[in-house]
Amino acid sequence: MIDTRLKQIALILLDVDGVLTAGQVVYDDSGQETKVFNVRDGLGIRMLIEAGLTVGIVTGRRSMALVHRCKNLGINLLKDGVRDKAAALEEILKETGVAASATAFVGDDLPDLPIMRRVGVPIAVGDAHDRVKQAAIMTTRATGGCGAVREICERILQARGDWEPMIKRLFS
């Protein structure tokens, strides 16, 4: 059943802190925020985009590090500084024309619950809050910032039948 739902995804939205990162906020001596992203997650995201899915970000924090990461990966759908993730979802669905039922959201903490309750495929990372895991139809083995997004990307590509052809096309 999960693979059937994964196969129908046209849009995947990601939280950042705790999903694309391990949930730490690091400041240097000058007060500049730094984020650490997983390169394997990045490759998974690029593969989803290559397969024709739209990948977007919905996060409560703003960060230039995130803006640079999105540019690097080819993510053009960025909603940062979001207070109401459910309202952001409605805006995104109107912008993209994708139905909520064909949308996945990956979250880790309580602010993610409103959007998770509205998408067709709510997903939690392995170290997510228990309530987030309860709201999800899938929980990754990997933790946020440590390959969870890559795990999800591979599952989606496998469910769609795109995994092996993409490996052959890109890496043979």
Explain the overall architecture:
α2 (39-50) packs parallel to α7. The chain has 172 residues and is an alpha/beta fold. α5 (113-116) links the parallel β6 and β7. The protein has helices spanning 2-7, 39-50, 64-73, 85-96, 113-116, 130-135, 148-160, 163-171; strands spanning 11-14, 26-27, 33-34, 54-58, 77-79, 103-107, 121-124, 138-139. The mean pLDDT is 96. It contains eight helices and eight strands.
Q: Which labels suit this protein?
A:
8 helices; 42% helix; Rossmann fold; 6-stranded parallel β-sheet; alpha/beta; 172 residues; two-stranded antiparallel ribbon
Summarize the topology:
Blueprint: H1 2-7, E1 11-14, E2 26-27, E3 33-34, H2 39-50, E4 54-58, H3 64-73, E5 77-79, H4 85-96, E6 103-107, H5 113-116, E7 121-124, H6 130-135, E8 138-139, H7 148-160, H8 163-171
Parallel strand pairs: 1-4, 1-6, 4-5, 6-7, 7-8
Antiparallel strand pairs: 2-3
Helix pairs in contact: 2-7
Biggest sheet statistics:
6 strands, parallel
Which percent bin holds the helix content?
Answer: 40-55%
User: Strand share of the residues?
Assistant: 15-25%
Distance between the terminal alpha carbons, to the nearest Å? 31 Å
Output the CATH homologous superfamily. Answer: HAD superfamily/HAD-like
Indicate the overall shape.
globular
Q: Would you tell me which CATH topology applies?
A: Rossmann fold
The low-confidence runs, each spanning 5 or more residues with pLDDT under 50, are none
Number of strands: 8
- Return the domain count: 1
Task: Supply Rg.
Answer: 15 Å
Counting DSSP H or I runs of 4 or more residues, the number of helices is 8
CATH C-level? Alpha Beta
Rounded mean pLDDT score: 96
**What strand order characterises the main sheet?**
5-4-1-6-7-8
